[in-house]
Amino acid sequence: MVDRSFADPALATLYDTLNLWGPGDDFYLGLVSAAGAVLDVGSGAGRLLRRARAGGHRGRLVGLDPAAAMLVEARRHGTDVEWVLGDLRTRDWYAEFDLVVMTGHVFQVLDRDEELRASLLAVHRALRPGGFVFETRNPAARAWETWTPERARTVTGADGAAVLVWHDVEGPVVGDLVTFTGTYACDTWPAHAVSRTTLRFLAPDALSAFLAEAGLTIADQYGDWARTPVTAVAPEIITVARRAS
């Protein structure tokens, strides 16, 4: 589990190390490779779009992220992709993309109704028409219960130094919102780096309602990256939506 608070340049360089390539990335890469113009919302260090370009994608690829430090990393490794600073409330596109994706549970960072509604309307405007694909953790699986300091792990930073990483949920869960901290400790740093994130765990019916309100219809939903159905114990709600009009 990786939180998205990587505005700190020291943390931005760790992003790909913390978030290793996996089945979810393969899932999205297949979709991106088959689409003409793609917008990756919350693109982070840009690995998905860079991999698509390296694999032969010749269309338009745009990565959007609110953290300047993440885009510095993205531009360092990929100059043939459009990297845009901001989010769906500060940037507008009109019928320019065949596919919009939100990977790495970015969708869950939209933790307020007004922010979620504005973002989904922006996705609707950006499509021409096309697909909107994202994943959110299934609240029934209660993933946050495993986000504890006892599950700390060590990763190697870009300079070869060991970084100890752990997470801790703050207080009780409030409705569908979970707030947690990520702590990053390295002997060569003057102090620990600490990020604080709130994620929203929307139930399937609430998720469907928000999408419908924005003019997006659900074409498919999966409970994991093998495309099995969503169940009470499925870890994910992977949604493939389409612009309804």
Largest sheet entry: 7 strands, mixed
Mean of residue pLDDT?
Answer: 93
CATH fourth-tier homologous superfamily of the largest domain = Vaccinia Virus protein VP39
Which outline best applies?
globular
Radius of gyration computed on alpha carbons: 18 Å
CATH level 1 class label of the largest domain: Alpha Beta
Total of helices: 7
CATH topology of the largest domain: Rossmann fold
Q: Structural class, from secondary structure content? A: alpha/beta
Beta percentage is: 25-35%
Task: Encode the helix/strand succession as letters.
Answer: HHHEHEHEEHEEEEEHEE
Total separate domains: 2
For the termini, the CA-CA separation is 35 Å
Q: Unreliable segments (pLDDT under 50, ≥5 consecutive)?
A: none
Q: Under the CATH scheme, which architecture of the largest domain would be assigned?
A: 3-Layer(aba) Sandwich
- Helical content band: 25-40%
The strand count comes to: 11
Name the strands of the widest sheet in spatial order: 3-2-1-4-5-11-10
What report would you give on this structure?
- The longest helix is centred in the middle third of the chain and has 14 residues, at 113-126.
- The chain is of the alpha/beta class.
- The strands form 2 sheets. The chain has a 7-stranded mixed beta sheet with strand order 3-2-1-4-5-11-10, with helices on both faces. A 4-stranded antiparallel beta sheet has the order 6-7-8-9, with no helix packed on it.
- It has helices at 9-12, 15-18, 23-34, 47-54, 68-77, 113-126, 204-213, and strands at residues 37-41, 60-65, 82-85, 97-102, 127-137, 153-156, 162-169, 177-186, 193-200, 216-222, 236-243.
- Helix 3 crosses helix 4.
- It is built from 7 helices and 11 strands.
- The chain is globular.
- The protein folds into 2 domains: 9-139 and 201-243, Vaccinia Virus protein VP39 (Rossmann fold, 3-Layer(aba) Sandwich), CATH 3.40.50.150; 141-199.
